[in-house]
Specification:
The chain is α/β, with parallel strands linked by helices and 271 residues long. Helix content is 41%, strand content 21%. The protein contains ten helices and nine strands. The strands form two sheets. It has a seven-stranded mixed beta sheet, sandwiched between helices. A two-stranded antiparallel sheet has the order 6-8. Strand 2, helix 5 and strand 3 form a beta-alpha-beta unit. Helix 7 crosses helix 10 and helix 9 runs antiparallel to helix 10. The N terminus is likely disordered.
């Protein structure tokens, strides 16, 4: 199984660019969530699945201060290399980026005061394994935070048959890869089952107006999986092209309402 098979949306240049923009777009929400953790200076923190643009490494770096340390972890060699370049360019002296699997990091147990993960579980099979691994990295008394997506409210209005058909294809593709597109609602339960206490949950949802980069995010996802979905028989190339063109025209209409995923921010403490 290749890395692209494991990570639902692949690791193309287009996906790397999307993730770069995502870091900027979600920065405010990330700051709010990290503020809830009351991270002390000198702490040791990890961003699991930091991606090519460093996830929240800069935000963690600020909070732990010069006497703290931050680790960014990602499975992709290419993403790790990009994140390292970013860390060097920003002169984040207390940050290092390492290659590793979220389900088996091979990092020392109970070696972090803070564990953070964003939009990882919704893209991988067997997310429970990743949660258990993240909790195992946490010291007693340490805090963990997750920002995960649930596809339940992601839709457009007026309804569009092309959106509905594309989502059928996307859901079938995701299911075949072992990925749960509605994992966000289960995050609190997985953390609780892994031993986390004092759990809190904050829901986040948006409307994407005309001109917003994430207004076409569903089409971006379809484009990412396009070649594999066609090759593996989830859809014919002609049908997919027609559906994408129809949906793009619908989203270009300023009167079309586009609603985001429902994001669950969940955080708690390891006793």
């Amino acid at each position: 199984m290749t890395e692209s098979d494991v990570y639902l949306l692949g690791r193309s240049q287009m996906e790397e660019e999307r993730l770069r923009k995502q870091v900027q777009e979600l920065a405010g929400e990330a700051r709010w969530l990290l503020d809830q953790l009351q991270i002390r200076p000198g702490a040791r923190a990890i961003d699991v699945g930091c991606g090519p643009q460093g996830g929240v490494l800069d935000l963690l770096s600020e909070r732990v201060g010069p006497h703290g340390t931050v680790v960014g972890l990602d499975k992709s060699k290419e993403f790790v290399a990009s994140a390292r370049e970013l860390v060097a360019a920003r002169q984040l002296a207390n940050v290092e980026v390492v290659q590793g699997d979220a389900k088996a990091t091979h990092l020392p147990r109970e070696s972090f005061d803070v564990v953070f993960s964003r939009l990882v579980l919704v893209n991988i099979p067997e997310p429970e394994q990743a949660v258990e691994e993240m909790v195992s990295l946490l010291r007693p008394g340490g805090v963990i935070a997750s920002h995960e997506a649930d596809y339940l409210p992601h839709m457009c209005d007026p309804p569009c048959p092309a959106w509905d058909r594309l989502f059928e294809i996307f859901q079938a593709y995701s299911r075949a890869k072992g990925v749960d597109l509605f994992v966000g609602r289960r995050t609190h339960r997985m953390l609780r089952d892994a031993g986390i206490v004092e759990l809190q949950v904050n829901p986040v949802i948006h409307v994407y107006p005309p001109g917003h980069h994430r207004r076409s995010i569903f089409l971006d996802f379809i484009q990412n999986i396009r070649d594999v979905a066609i090759r593996e028989g989830f859809v014919k190339e002609g049908e997919l092209s027609a559906l994408m063109q129809e949906l793009r025209s619908h989203l270009d209409n300023a009167n079309t309402l586009v609603v985001s995923h429902l994001f669950f921010q969940v955080w708690g403490r390891k006793p």
